[in-house]
Amino acid sequence: MYRLHVGIDDTDSPEGMCTTYISCVIIQELKSCGFSPEGYPRLIRLNPFAPHKTRGNGAVTFTVLAESPEDINTIKGIVLQVVAELAELDSERTNPGVVFHTGEITDEMREFALSAIRLILRIEDARRLAEKVGAEVHGFKKGRGIIGALAAIGCPLDDSTYELLTYRVPENYGKPRRIDPESVARMDEATGTETFDNIDGDYIAIEPHTPCPILYGIRGESPEVLLRAMEMVCVDEEIERHCIFETNQHTDQHIQDAVRIADMETFGCYRVRGEVVDGPRVIEGGHVFFTLGDESGQIECGAYEPTKDFRKIILELIPGDVVTVYGGIGAQGTLNIEKIHIESLADLYVEENPICTCGKRMKSAGRNKGFKCPSCGRRLRSSEKVRRAIERPLTGGYYEVPTCARRHLSKQLVRMGISSPPFEATESSSTRQSAHFNKKWEDL
Description:
One of its GO terms (biological process) is tRNA wobble cytosine modification. This protein has four domains: 2-154, Alpha-Beta Plaits, CATH 3.30.70; 161-247, Alpha-Beta Complex (Glycinamide Ribonucleotide Synthetase, Chain A, domain 4), CATH 3.90.600.20; 256-345 and 392-437, CATH 2.40.50.1010; 349-390, no CATH class. The protein is 22% helix and 30% strand. It has nine helices and 24 strands. The chain has helices at residues 19-32, 69-86, 107-118, 123-133, 145-154, 181-191, 223-232, 310-315, 429-433; strands spanning 2-9, 36-45, 58-66, 97-101, 136-139, 161-168, 195-196, 199-200, 203-204, 214-220, 239-247, 256-258, 269-276, 281-283, 287-294, 297-303, 322-329, 335-344, 349-352, 363-364, 371-372, 379-380, 386-389, 397-400. The strands form five sheets. It has a nine-stranded mixed β-sheet with strand order 5-4-1-3-2-11-6-10-7, sandwiched between helices. β8 (199-200) and β9 (203-204) form a beta hairpin. α1 (19-32) crosses α2, α4 crosses α5 (145-154) and α6 (181-191) packs antiparallel against α7. The termini are far apart. The relative contact order is 0.12.
C-alpha cells in the first residue's frame, strides 16, 4: 500500500475560487473513483504577513492510499485536472502549485514548513527541497503555490484545531449570504469554549466577506462539536457540500521567540519582550502606536483601528512598563499587535501643590518662593511639589484583539487557559496628560 501526500496552494481569485473548495471537489472525485483519503484533509495557514499571499494564505494537504503505481498516476491525473478546471487561471492573482510526495516526511520538510509559516521563502527554495526529497512539483503560471503546497505536506501539528466549511451552490456566488444571526448566537452559547470566534456583537465571524464559494466556517476543538454546531446554524439557502479540515489555525504556530529586537526581520512573526519607551500616540484613522525597546534597539508597535477597544488598553501604557508583544512585522517595519502580556507596570504619579495643615490646597507664592495657603495664610519655603501615586486601570496579564480583528493563526487566550484581567476603559490621568496624543481618547 502506498501513501501519496498531496499539497495544493494559491488557487485564490477575485471571482471566488479557493483552495479548500477545490480540495473538497478533488477528495469527492477520488472517493467516487474508489480511492480512500486517510484522515481529515489539513488546512495549513502560512505567514499572514507574506507580501504575496491569498486572502487567508492557506494551503491544503491530504493523504490518499493507493495500491499500485498505476493508482498513484490515476490520482495525480485527477488532482491536476480538477485544479486546471477550477482554479480560474485567467485571474492574475492565481498562481497555483501542486506537490505530490510518497516518501517520509523529513525534518528538513518540517523546518521548511515552519519557515513558510513564520518567515518568507522563495519558489527556488521549494523547488530545491522538492528535488532533494523526491517530491513531484507542478506549478501553474508563476507557480508560487508550490511553496505552500510543499509546506502543507511537511507541516507538523503538535497542536491543532478543526474547521468545518460549508459551500454554496454556484448560482449564489457573489450574492448576500442568508445566515440567521440569532442561530449563530445560540450555537455559540451552546458550544461554549468548544468552538470559538463565531460571533462578535453584531459581527457574524463565521461568515466570509468575499464572493468565495464558502457559506460559513465554524472553528472548534473537535470534528464532533463542529457537526453539532452545523446542525444549530440556520441558513436560507442551499448548501452544496461541507468538509472538515484539521488545521493549525489558532495555535500561534506562526510565532517565534525573538531574543532581541534587533534580530527581528520584516514580514516575520514574533513574541518579543521589552520596555515601553514612549507614551502611546494616535494617528489619523484611530491607529495607536508606541515604541518598544530593549538593549539591542527599538521597534514601533501598532494597534490598528480594526482592533477596536483593544486600542484603549494600549493607550494606557506608559514608559517603563515591561511587556511581551505577539505579532508580525509589516512592510513598514511596524510590529502589528495580536496580543500583549503586561509583565510589570511602572509607577505613575502626578505632581501637586502641598496640602496645608488647615486642609486646604496651597497655591504658588511665585517663582521659587514656595507656597502660600489661600485660607489661613500659612507659607512653605520649599517650592517642591508633592508626588501622588495614581491608580492605573491596567493590571498585569494578557490582553488580546477582539474576534473581528483576529488573524487565522493567532491563539485565543481561552485556548491558552488564560483570562484577561478586568479592564474598565476610562480616560486615565496618564492619557489626559500625555503630550504625545494628537487625537482625543474619546474619539477611538
